[in-house]
C-alpha cells in the first residue's frame, strides 16, 4: 500500500545543525503546526487526481520553523511511477523541484512529508522507517496524514504525527528484540505523538471564504448528516479483523519463542547442576574439576521474533478502534438527532 | 581367416597357387599376401559394392597382426576403424547378412582379449598405454558383441563341434595329414573353419563369405574329402548303433542342423520324438541357447510328429512346449512379444484347444508327474503334464503388455486391439473346456479372466434392447449378435459362481469389484452401491496389492459417475472425493505416471509401476471424471457457501473446487471460458448470483457436450437431470443470498424465475425451513414466503466474527502472560480492548435504535 521510505537528500543532514542550534535539542522542537490553506488544498487535489481506493499518494512538505511552531507554507506531490522506469531519480526530482521553488521565492526548506490513508490504515513499517529517516535528518519534520474518506464525509481530516523521542532512540539502536523494547518501556500508545494543527489563511482568503459561505446552498453540506453507517463500519471492521489476525499470528510466534526459551533455560539449569555435582564428586576424590565450557555455545538461545511489527500492528489496531469509536459516536448523535426530528415532525 | 583364404586361393587362380605353396610353411608374416590378392581378383570381378568388404578385411588383417604382436593400442585404433567401416557398409550387410569373417574376428578378438586379461603376469609387463587400451577395447568389444550375440554363439558352437569332429577323425583315421607337425595345427583350425563354412552352405545363411567359400571349396574338395569321408564313417557308425546320432549332436543344440532333425532312415516313433523333445528342452534356459531356433525346432518337431501320426498326446505336449518357449523368448519381464510371435502364440493356443476339444481322452494337469505321462499309448487316455490355464493366463498378460507398449493413438493400437476378440474367444473356449473338466479353482480363475474382459465394456446391445430400439435400422448381423446373452447376465452368473466357490480372497475381491463396475457402468446404481457396501471392501482395500487397489479406484470412480448420472450428487461427490482430492487421479487409476514423482522413484520402481498401467482402451476419461466431480462439487458447495457466508468456522466441502475458483479469480482478464474447468468456474459464479440460466448455458453447451456430456450413454437424461439440479440449487442459493432484502416473496415469482413447478418450489422452501436454513414461514393463502429477518445483518455478522477472533487473541495473550507469571487469566486491561468493548456497546445500541423505528 505504501511506497518505500521517502528518499532524502544528503544535504539536508547539514541543515540539522543550523536548526538544532536555533532551539534546544532536548525538548520537542515542534509544539504546533500551522498550515497554509494552500497546502491543504494541494494535498486534497493531489489525492483527487491520482489516488483512488486504497492507493496512497505522497508528497513533500515545505516550510520553516518559527520558534516552537512549524509553519508549512507549501508542498509538492511526489510523482507516481511504476517500478518499470528505473531511470527515474527521486532525489534528483526533489532537488530540482525545491530549486525551482526557490527561484520563485517560495519557502524551500524541507520540513516533512504527507501521505493519504485508507480508512485510517497508515501505521506501518514503511511509514515508521521513512519518518525516522526524516526526523533523524531534520529534527522538526512531521508527517501529515490525510484521510480522504472522512473528508469526503464532510469533515476535513488532516493529522500531523511525529515519532516520540523514545521511539527515535529505539529506531536508532535498531534493537527490536523483546528485551530491547521492554527496556525502552515503549508501548503502542507512545509510539507516535500527534501535533495540533492550525490552518492559517491570509485575511484576503478569509474574506473570500466568508463570501462563498454566504452564497453556498444548504444542500452542499448534506454529506455531514448522512445517516448510513454500515458501509464504513464494515470496511473498518474488515481491516480491523485482518490486523487482529496478524496480531494473533505474532502472538503465537512469540508464545512459541517464550516456551522454547524457558525449556532451554531448564535444560541449561539441569546441565549446570549435573556439572556441579560431578565437580564436587571429583573434588572429594581429589581430582581436578572439569574444565569450564562455554555454555552459551552449547545452548544457543532461540532467535527472538522482532516485536516492532507487533507493536505497529497494535498501534494500527488502536488507530482503527479510535476511528470506529469516533465514527460511531458521531453517528449515534446523528441518529438521536434524526429520531428527535422525526418525533417532532410527526 | 586369412589362413583360410590362403588355402582357399590355391586352386582359385594360377598366380596364387604359388603363394599357396608358401603358406603352409611360412606362417605369420607372409601368409596375408595371397589372401589379399585372391580378394582383389575376386572382388574386382564380382561387384563394385563389395569393395566395402575389402575394406573390412583389410582392417581385420591389421587387427590380427596387432594381436600377434600384442599391440593393444593399435588394436583399439583399428577396431574403431573397423566399427566405422562396418557401419558404412550397413546397407550391404542388411541385404546380405553379417559376413562370417566379421563375426569370426569379433569372436576371436574377444577370446583373445579375455585371455590377455586373465594373464595377470603378462598384463603387468605391458606398458601403460597398452594396458589402458586393453581395458577399453575389452569393454568396447563386450558391449559391441552383444549385438551379434547369436551369430557369435553359433559360430562358437560350430567351432566346438567341428573340433570334436576333427579330433574324432584324428584318432580314428590313422593316416594323418601329410603336412608336418607344426602345420597340422594350422590345418586343424583350418578345417574347423571349413567345417563351419560348409555347414553354413548347407544352412540358410547366404553370406558373402559363403559365396567365396563355395568357389574355393570346389578346388579344395580333394583335401577336404578325407574329412568328409571320416564324417560319413562316423555317421554310419552312429546309425549302426541304435541312437548313435545323438552322439554327433552331443547335447549341444545344433541350430544349423534343423532340417535333418533325425538322421535319415531313422524310424520315427513316439519314443524317438519324445527323446528329441526332452533333448531340446534341456537346452532351454541355458546360456547361449538360441531361443528363436528352439522355437523353430519345436515347430519342426510338431510337424514331424504330425506327419507320422504319432498321436495327439505328443502333439499336445509339443504344443505346450512351443507356447512355453514362445513366452520364454523375451527374458526381460518388461519386454513385450513381437507381433509375429504373438500371432504364432495365438495360433498355437487355438490349435491346442482344437485338439483338446476333439479328443476327450486327453488329461492335462500340472500335477501329472513327468514319469506318469502317457503320450503314446492311444488306447489309454493320454496324460500330459502342463496347464493350459496358466498358458492362457500368460497369454492374456502378454496381450495386456502389448497393449501397454503400443502407442494408443496409432493405427497399430487399433490393429492390436482387434486381437482382443481372439483373446476373448480363446478364453471363452477354455472356459467351456474347463467347465466340463477343470477343478473349481481353475474354473474360478478362468471365470475371472472372462470377467476381466467383460466388466469394462458397455453392453450397447442390451442398452438398445432395453430402450426398445432393437432392429430398427440395424443390419441383420447386428440383430443376430444382439440375441446373445446380455453381459449383465453373464457377469452375474460368473461372479456368483466365484462368490460361492472361490477360496482365494483375491479372485473374489476382483470379481466383486468388476461386478460393481459393471453395474455402475450400466447405471444400476442401487445394485452397485449395495454390493459395494455389503462387500466391506472399503475397510480393508488398503491391504490389497496395487493392481487390486487400482481396480478398486476404477470401481469407485465408475460408481461416482454412475451416481452422478442418476442425479445423486452427494453420493457422486463422496465417491469421487478421495480420488480427486489427491490430485493424482491419473496415477491412482493406473492411467499414467506422474512426472513430478520421477525423481522419487528409481528405474526399477518405474518399471514396476509401468507394468501396472491399465491399457488405453480400458481408461476412464479423466476429463469426464473431473468434470463430474467439479459439477457435483459446485451443486453442493455454492448453496452451502451462500448459507454460511458469515460463518467463521465453515468448512470447505471440496478443496479442489475452491482451488479452481481461486485460480479463476486470479485471472487478470476474464475471457469467455475455454476449458472444462473454466466453464465450471464461470457457471459457479453465475450460480452464486442465483442466475441459473447463465449457469445452465455454461454447463451445457456445444463445447461441454463434445468434451464431456456426449460421453455418457444416455446423454439426454443426464442433461435433463443437470438442468433440473441447477435450477433447484440456484433457487436455494438465491434464497440464501437475498432473503435478507425481502420481506416476503411470492412463490409464483420464484417458480417463474427458476422455471420450476410450484410444488417443487414449495417443497424446496419447506425443506429449507424445516432444516432451519431459512428463517421464514409460508403463507398459504397468498402463496408467499414471509421472511422473519432473524439473521444478523452483515455488519452484525462481522462484529460477531471479530468478537470470536478477539477471544482467540485474548486467549493467546493470556498464554504469554501465563508463561511469565505462572497464573492464568487477569490480563484484560489494555486500551485496545476497551475500545473494542465500546464498539460492541455501540453496535448493540444501534441495533436497539433500529428496532425502535
Automatic annotation (TrEMBL), chain A:
Residues 33-167 form the MPN domain. It is found in: Cytoplasm. One of its GO terms (molecular function) is translation initiation factor activity. Its main location: cytoplasm. GO terms for cellular component: eukaryotic 43S preinitiation complex; eukaryotic 48S preinitiation complex; eukaryotic translation initiation factor 3 complex. Keywords: Cytoplasm, Initiation factor, Protein biosynthesis. Pfam families: eIF3h_C, JAB. Residues 273-307 are annotated as: Disordered. SMART domains: JAB_MPN. GO terms for biological process: formation of cytoplasmic translation initiation complex. Belongs to the eIF-3 subunit H family. PANTHER family: EUKARYOTIC TRANSLATION INITIATION FACTOR 3 -RELATED. Component of the eukaryotic translation initiation factor 3 (eIF-3) complex, which is composed of 13 subunits: EIF3A, EIF3B, EIF3C, EIF3D, EIF3E, EIF3F, EIF3G, EIF3H, EIF3I, EIF3J, EIF3K, EIF3L and EIF3M. Component of the eukaryotic translation initiation factor 3 (eIF-3) complex, which is required for several steps in the initiation of protein synthesis. The eIF-3 complex associates with the 40S ribosome and facilitates the recruitment of eIF-1, eIF-1A, eIF-2:GTP:methionyl-tRNAi and eIF-5 to form the 43S pre-initiation complex (43S PIC). The eIF-3 complex stimulates mRNA recruitment to the 43S PIC and scanning of the mRNA for AUG recognition. HAMAP family: eIF3h (MF_03007). This is Eukaryotic translation initiation factor 3 subunit H. It comes from Cyprinus carpio (Common carp). The gene is LOC109056986.
From TrEMBL, chain B:
Component of the eukaryotic translation initiation factor 3 (eIF-3) complex, which is composed of 13 subunits: EIF3A, EIF3B, EIF3C, EIF3D, EIF3E, EIF3F, EIF3G, EIF3H, EIF3I, EIF3J, EIF3K, EIF3L and EIF3M. Residues 174-188, 230-243 have a biased composition (Acidic residues). Its main location: cytoplasm. Belongs to the eIF-3 subunit C family. Keywords: Cytoplasm, Initiation factor, Phosphoprotein, Protein biosynthesis. PANTHER family: EUKARYOTIC TRANSLATION INITATION FACTOR 3, SUBUNIT 8 EIF3S8 -RELATED, EUKARYOTIC TRANSLATION INITIATION FACTOR 3 SUBUNIT C-RELATED. It is found in: Cytoplasm. GO terms for biological process: formation of cytoplasmic translation initiation complex. Residues 616-792 form the PCI domain. GO terms for cellular component: eukaryotic 43S preinitiation complex; eukaryotic 48S preinitiation complex; eukaryotic translation initiation factor 3 complex. InterPro entries: EIF3C, EIF3C_N_dom, EIF3CL_C, PCI_dom, WH-like_DNA-bd_sf, WH_DNA-bd_sf. Residues 1-31, 172-203, 224-245 are annotated as: Disordered. Component of the eukaryotic translation initiation factor 3 (eIF-3) complex, which is required for several steps in the initiation of protein synthesis. The eIF-3 complex associates with the 40S ribosome and facilitates the recruitment of eIF-1, eIF-1A, eIF-2:GTP:methionyl-tRNAi and eIF-5 to form the 43S pre-initiation complex (43S PIC). The eIF-3 complex stimulates mRNA recruitment to the 43S PIC and scanning of the mRNA for AUG recognition. GO terms for molecular function: RNA binding; translation initiation factor activity; translation initiation factor binding. It comes from Cyprinus carpio. This is Eukaryotic translation initiation factor 3 subunit C. It holds the Pfam family EIF3CL_C.
Amino acid at each position: 500500500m505504501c511506497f518505500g521510505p521517502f528518499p532524502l537528500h544528503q544535504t539536508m543532514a547539514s541543515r540539522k545543525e543550523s536548526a538544532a542550534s536555533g532551539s534546544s535539542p532536548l525538548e520537542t522542537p515542534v509544539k504546533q503546526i500551522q498550515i497554509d490553506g494552500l497546502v491543504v488544498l494541494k494535498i486534497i487535489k493531489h489525492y483527487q487526481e491520482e489516488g483512488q481506493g486504497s492507493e496512497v499518494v505522497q508528497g513533500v512538505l515545505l516550510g520553516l520553523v518559527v520558534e516552537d511552531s512549524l509553519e508549512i507554507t507549501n508542498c509538492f506531490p511526489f510523482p507516481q511511477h511504476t517500478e518499470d522506469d528505473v531511470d527515474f531519480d527521486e532525489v534528483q526530482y526533489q532537488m530540482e523541484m525545491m530549486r525551482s521553488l526557490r527561484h520563485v521565492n517560495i519557502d524551500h526548506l524541507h520540513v516533512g512529508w504527507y501521505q493519504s490513508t485508507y480508512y485510517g490504515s497508515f501505521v506501518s513499517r514503511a511509514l515508521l522507517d521513512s519518518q525516522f529517516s526524516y526526523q533523524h535528518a531534520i529534527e522538526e519534520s512531521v508527517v501529515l496524514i490525510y484521510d480522504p474518506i472522512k473528508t469526503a464525509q464532510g469533515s476535513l481530516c488532516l493529522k500531523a504525527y511525529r515519532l516520540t523521542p523514545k521511539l527515535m532512540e529505539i529506531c536508532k539502536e535498531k534493537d527490536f528484540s523483546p528485551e530491547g523494547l521492554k527496556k525502552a518501556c515503549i508501548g503502542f500508545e507512545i509510539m507516535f505523538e500527534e501535533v495540533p494543527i492550525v490552518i492559517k489563511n491570509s485575511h484576503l482568503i478569509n474574506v473570500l471564504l466568508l463570501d462563498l459561505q454566504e452564497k453556498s446552498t444548504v444542500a452542499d453540506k448534506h454529506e455531514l448528516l448522512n445517516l448510513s453507517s454500515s458501509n464504513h463500519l464494515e470496511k473498518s471492521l474488515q481491516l480491523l479483523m485482518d490486523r487482529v489476525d496478524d496480531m494473533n499470528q505474532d502472538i503465537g510466534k512469540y508464545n512459541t519463542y517464550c516456551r522454547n526459551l524457558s525449556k532451554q533455560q531448564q535444560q541449561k539449569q539441569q546441565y549446570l547442576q549435573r556439572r556441579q555435582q560431578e565437580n564436587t564428586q571429583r573434588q572429594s576424590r581429589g581430582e581436578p574439576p572439569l574444565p569450564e565450557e562455554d555454555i552459551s555455545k552449547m545452548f544457543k538461545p532461540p532467535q527472538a521474533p522482532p516485536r516492532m511489527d507487533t507493536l505497529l500492528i497494535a498501534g494500527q489496531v488502536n488507530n482503527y478502534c479510535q476511528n470506529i469509536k469516533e465514527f460511531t459516536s458521531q453517528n449515534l448523535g446523528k441518529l438521536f438527532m434524526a429520531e428527535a426530528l422525526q418525533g417532532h415532525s410527526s | 581367416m586369412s589362413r583360410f583364404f590362403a588355402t582357399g586361393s590355391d586352386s582359385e587362380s594360377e598366380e596364387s597357387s604359388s603363394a599357396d605353396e608358401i603358406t603352409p610353411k611360412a606362417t605369420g608374416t607372409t601368409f596375408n599376401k595371397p589372401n589379399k590378392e585372391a580378394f582383389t581378383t575376386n572382388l574386382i570381378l564380382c561387384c563394385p559394392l563389395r569393395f566395402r568388404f575389402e575394406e573390412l578385411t583389410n582392417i581385420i588383417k591389421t587387427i590380427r597382426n596387432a594381436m600377434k604382436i600384442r599391440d593393444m593400442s593399435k588394436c583399439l585404433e583399428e577396431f574403431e576403424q573397423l566399427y566405422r567401416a562396418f557401419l558404412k557398409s550397413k546397407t550391404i550387410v542388411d541385404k546380405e547378412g553379417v559376413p562370417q569373417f566379421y563375426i569370426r574376428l569379433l569372436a576371436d578378438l574377444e577370446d583373445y582379449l579375455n585371455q590377455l586379461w586373465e594373464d595377470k603376469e603378462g598384463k603387468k609387463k605391458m606398458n601403460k598405454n597398452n594396458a589402458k587400451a586393453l581395458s577399453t577395447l575389452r569393454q568396447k568389444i563386450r558391449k559391441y558383441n552383444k549385438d551379434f550375440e547369436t551369430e557369435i554363439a553359433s559360430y562358437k558352437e560350430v567351432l566346438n563341434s567341428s573340433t570334436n569332429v576333427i579330433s574324432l577323425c584324428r584318432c580314428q583315421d590313422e593316416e594323418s595329414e601329410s603336412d608336418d607337425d607344426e602345420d597340422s595345427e594350422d590345418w586343424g583350425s583350418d578345417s574347423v573353419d571349413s567345417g563351419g563354412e560348409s555347414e553354413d552352405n548347407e544352412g540358410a545363411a547366404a553370406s558373402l563369405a559363403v559365396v567365396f567359400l563355395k568357389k574355393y571349396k570346389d578346388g579344395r574338395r580333394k583335401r577336404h574329402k578325407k574329412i568328409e569321408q571320416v564324417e560319413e564313417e562316423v555317421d554310419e557308425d552312429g546309425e549302426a548303433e541304435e541312437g548313435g546320432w545323438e552322439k554327433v549332436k552331443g547335447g549341444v543344440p545344433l541350430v544349423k542342423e534343423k532340417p535333418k532333425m533325425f538322421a535319415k532312415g531313422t524310424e520315427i516313433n513316439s519314443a524317438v520324438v519324445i527323446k528329441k523333445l526332452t533333448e531340446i528342452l534341456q537346452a532351454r534356459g541355458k546360456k547361449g541357447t538360441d531361443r528363436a531356433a528352439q522355437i523353430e525346432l519345436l515347430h519342426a518337431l510338431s510337424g514331424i510328429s504330425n506327419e507320422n501320426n504319432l498321436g495327439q498326446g505328443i502333439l499336445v505336449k509339443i504344443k505346450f512346449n512351443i507356447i512355453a518357449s514362445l513366452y520364454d523368448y523375451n527374458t526381460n519381464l518388461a519386454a513385450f512379444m513381437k507381433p509375429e510371435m504373438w500371432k504364432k502364440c495365438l495360433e498355437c493356443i487355438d490349435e491346442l484347444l482344437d485338439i483338446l476339444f476333439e479328443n476327450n481322452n486327453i488329461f492335462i494337469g500340472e500335477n501329472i508327474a513327468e514319469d506318469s505321462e502317457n503320450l503314446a499309448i492311444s488306447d489309454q487316455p493320454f496324460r500330459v503334464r502342463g496347464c493350459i490355464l496358466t498358458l492362457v493366463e500368460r497369454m492374456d498378460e502378454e496381450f495386456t503388455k502389448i497393449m501397454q507398449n503400443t502407442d494408443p493413438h496409432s493405427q497399430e493400437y487399433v490393429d492390436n486391439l482387434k486381437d482382443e476378440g481372439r483373446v476373448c474367444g480363446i478364453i471363452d473356449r477354455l472356459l467351456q473346456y474347463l467347465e466340463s473338466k477343470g477343478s473349481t479353482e481353475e474354473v474360478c480363475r478362468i471365470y475371472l479372466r472372462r470377467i476381466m474382459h467383460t466388466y469394462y465394456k458397455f453392453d450397447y446391445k442390451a442398452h438398445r434392447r432395453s430402450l426398445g430400439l432393437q432392429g430398427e435400422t440395424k443390419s441383420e448381423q447386428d440383430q443376430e449378435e444382439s440375441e446373445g446373452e446380455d453381459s449383465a447376465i453373464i457377469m452375474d452368473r460368473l461372479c456368483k459362481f466365484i462368490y460361492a466357490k472361490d477360496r482365494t480372497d483375491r479372485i473374489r475381491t476382483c470379481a466383486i469389484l468388476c461386478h460393481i463396475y459393471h453395474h455402475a457402468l450400466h447405471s444400476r446404481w442401487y445394485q452397485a452401491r449395495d454390493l459395494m457396501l455389503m462387500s466391506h471392501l472399503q475397510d480393508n482395500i488398503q491391504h490389497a496389492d496395487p493392481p487390486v487397489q487400482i481396480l478398486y479406484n476404477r470401481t469407485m470412480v465408475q460408481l461416482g459417475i454412475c451416481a452422478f448420472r442418476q442425479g445423486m450428487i452427494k453420493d457422486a461427490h463422496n465417491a469421487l472425493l478421495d480420488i480427486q482430492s489427491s490430485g493424482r487421479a491419473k496415477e491412482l487409476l493406473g492411467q499414467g505416471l506422474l512426472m513430478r514423482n520421477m525423481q522419487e522413484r528409481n528405474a526399477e520402481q518405474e518399471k514396476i509401476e509401468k507394468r501396472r498401467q491399465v491399457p488405453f482402451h480400458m481408461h476412464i476419461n479423466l476429463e469426464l471424471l473431473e468434470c463430474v466431480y467439479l459439477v457435483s462439487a459446485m451443486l453442493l458447495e455454492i448453496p452451502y457457501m451462500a448459507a454460511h457466508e458469515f460463518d467463521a468456522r465453515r468448512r470447505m466441502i471440496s478443496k479442489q473446487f475452491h482451488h479452481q475458483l481461486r485460480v479463476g479469480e486470479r485471472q487478470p482478464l476474464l475471457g469467455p471460458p475455454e476449458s472444462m474447468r473454466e466453464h465450471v468456474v464461470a457457471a459457479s459464479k453465475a450460480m452464486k448470483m442465483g442466475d441459473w440460466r447463465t449457469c445452465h448455458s455454461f454447463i451445457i453447451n456445444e463445447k461441454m457436450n463434445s468434451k464431456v456430456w456426449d460421453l455418457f450413454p444416455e446423454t439426454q437424461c443426464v442433461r435433463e437431470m443437470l438442468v433440473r439440479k441447477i435450477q433447484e440449487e440456484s433457487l436455494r442459493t438465491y434464497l440464501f443470498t437475498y432473503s435478507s432484502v425481502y420481506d416476503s416473496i411470492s412463490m409464483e415469482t420464484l417458480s417463474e424465475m427458476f422455471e420450476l413447478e410450484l410444488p417443487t418450489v414449495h417443497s424446496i422452501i419447506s425443506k429449507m425451513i424445516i432444516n432451519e436454513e431459512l428463517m421464514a414461514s409460508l403463507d398459504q393463502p397468498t402463496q408467499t414466503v414471509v421472511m422473519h429477518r432473524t439473521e444478523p445483518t452483515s455488519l452484525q455478522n462481522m462484529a460477531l466474527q471479530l468478537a470470536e477472533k478477539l477471544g482467540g487473541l485474548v486467549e493467546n495473550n493470556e498464554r504469554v502472560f501465563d508463561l511469565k507469571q505462572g497464573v492464568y487469566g487477569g490480563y484484560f486491561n489494555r486500551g485496545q480492548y476497551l475500545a473494542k468493548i465500546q464498539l460492541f456497546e455501540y453496535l448493540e445500541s444501534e441495533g436497539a435504535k433500529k428496532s425502535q423505528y
